């Protein structure tokens, strides 16, 4: 007979009581020291953190038993007669230490500035995204820089990862969604006429997932409006064509990863992470992050829309369109709209100047001579040229 065994259960008073009974049975069967109420609470918290949810508990009891046994070991090392919360935390920390060599090596690259990440100041068209690495039994988050450049053209969004064959299908989909949002927001009265180049800096392996799509959109808006973004804020969250920020996975690892980098480079009170509002229920952060938030050294923002997010990142109002779809000129979206109109006007002027014939542009004689010279040089060196 087929049967499905769930790996999680709703966290209720009854299931917490059953968790405590399970801990007591393991202690009795394995001849372990009894747990204090704080020790039981720490194991329950481990069960929550294992599945990144405050409303559910993990049913993977093999891992839970491992924590219980190791906590007993550290309690006996302290000559204690009870297993306390400190012993459970010690067990979890030591277990992670045995598996996190790769995590530490990557972190060194941020400390030594081998991987370039700014955690202070401002920059135009540049945002800190967050990625999760899975190495064996542990997962950890680390930031990566996304940059966007916008200029005249008709190519739309050029995803450098895709062009270099480093982008997965889900990431490609996320980038294509950005075109839908930009068209919906800014192309109601006239077509978009621009080119956008976007990439993950210092990324030399595959990139997949759409959890950075909102981050990429913020970089594009910043570049178009020529308004800088706060570099002390890292961003995660996918976006749909309506501009709604959607939930992502690994939110705790991402927050903790950026926090570790900020702490190594120096906390200044203005740093933090911006997450989708839908992920608030998944927050199960380590003690050091919680303490930093309570002390005002680190902040976690929740956003539901792109408009909310861009206002936090830049300090400028996004703006609301009027009945004609026009944004106020003193808002961020108003500046984006003005830049897009400039690109379109310049493109029309060039089109009028050179004209078009058979899908190609007619150039003056002097420019044809220059192009012919480039063609000859390319042919001499065996480089590709245009088709005649």
Explain what this protein looks like in three dimensions:
- There is one protein chain.
- This protein starts with 7 loop residues before the first strand and ends in an 8-residue tail after the last helix.
- The chain folds into three domains: 90 residues, Helicase, Ruva Protein, domain 3 (Orthogonal Bundle), CATH 1.10.8.60; 210 residues, 2-Layer Sandwich (Ribosomal Protein S5, domain 2), CATH 3.30.230; 34 residues.
- The strands form five sheets. The chain has a seven-stranded mixed β-sheet with strand order 6-7-5-4-9-12-13, sandwiched between helices. Strands 1-2 form a two-stranded antiparallel sheet. Strands 3-8 form a two-stranded antiparallel ribbon.
- It is built from 13 helices and 15 strands.
- It is α/β, with parallel strands linked by helices.
- Helix 3 crosses helix 4, helix 7 packs across helix 8 and helix 8 packs across helix 12.
- It is elongated, with a radius of gyration of 27 Å.
Q: How would you spell out the order of helices and strands?
A: EHHEHHHEEEEHHEHEEEEHEHEHHEEH
Can you count the beta strands? 15
Oligomeric grouping of the chains: single chain
Q: So how many helices?
A: 13
Q: In CATH terms, what is the architecture of the largest domain?
A: 2-Layer Sandwich
CATH top level label of the largest domain: Alpha Beta
Tell me the distance between the termini: 70 Å
Shape: elongated
Radius of gyration: 27 Å
């Amino acid at each position: 007979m087929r049967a499905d065994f769930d790996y999680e259960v709703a966290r209720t008073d009854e299931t917490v009581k059953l968790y405590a009974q399970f801990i007591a049975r393991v202690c009795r069967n394995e001849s372990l020291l009894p747990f204090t109420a704080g020790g039981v609470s720490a194991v329950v918290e481990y069960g929550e953190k294992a599945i990144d949810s405050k409303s559910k508990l993990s049913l993977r009891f093999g891992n839970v038993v491992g924590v219980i046994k190791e906590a007993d070991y550290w309690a006996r090392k302290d000559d204690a007669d009870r297993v306390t919360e400190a012993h459970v935390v010690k067990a979890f920390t030591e277990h992670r230490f045995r598996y996190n060599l790769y995590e530490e090596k990557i972190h060194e690259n941020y400390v030594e500035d081998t991987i370039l990440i700014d955690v202070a100041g401002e920059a135009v068209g540049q945002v800190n995204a967050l990625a999760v690495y899975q190495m064996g039994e542990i997962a950890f988050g680390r930031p990566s820089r996304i940059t966007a450049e916008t200029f005249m053209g008709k190519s739309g969004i050029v995803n450098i990862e895709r062009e270099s064959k480093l982008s997965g299908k889900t990431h490609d989909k996320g980038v294509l969604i950005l075109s839908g949002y930009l068209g919906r927001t800014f192309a109601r009265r006239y077509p978009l006429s621009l080119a956008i180049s976007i990439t993950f800096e210092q990324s030399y392996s595959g990139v997949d997932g759409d959890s950075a799509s909102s981050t990429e959109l913020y970089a594009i808006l910043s570049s178009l409006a020529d308004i800088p973004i706060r570099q002390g804020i890292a961003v995660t969250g996918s976006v749909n064509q309506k501009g709604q920020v959607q939930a992502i996975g690994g939110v705790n690892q991402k927050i903790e990863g950026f926090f570790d980098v900020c702490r190594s480079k120096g906390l200044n009170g203005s740093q933090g992470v911006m997450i989708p509002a839908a992920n608030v229920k998944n927050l199960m952060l380590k003690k050091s992050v919680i303490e930093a938030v309570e002390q005002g050294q680190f902040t976690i923002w929740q956003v539901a829309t792109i408009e909310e997010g861009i206002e936090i990142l830049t300090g400028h109002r996004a703006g609301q369109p009027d009945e004609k779809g026009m944004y106020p000129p003193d808002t961020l979206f108003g500046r984006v709209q003005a830049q897009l109109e400039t690109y379109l006007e310049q493109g029309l002027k060039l089109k009028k100047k050179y004209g078009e014939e058979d899908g190609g542009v007619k150039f003056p004689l002097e420019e044809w001579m220059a192009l012919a010279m480039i063609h000859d040089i390319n042919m001499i060196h065996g480089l590709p040229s245009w088709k005649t």
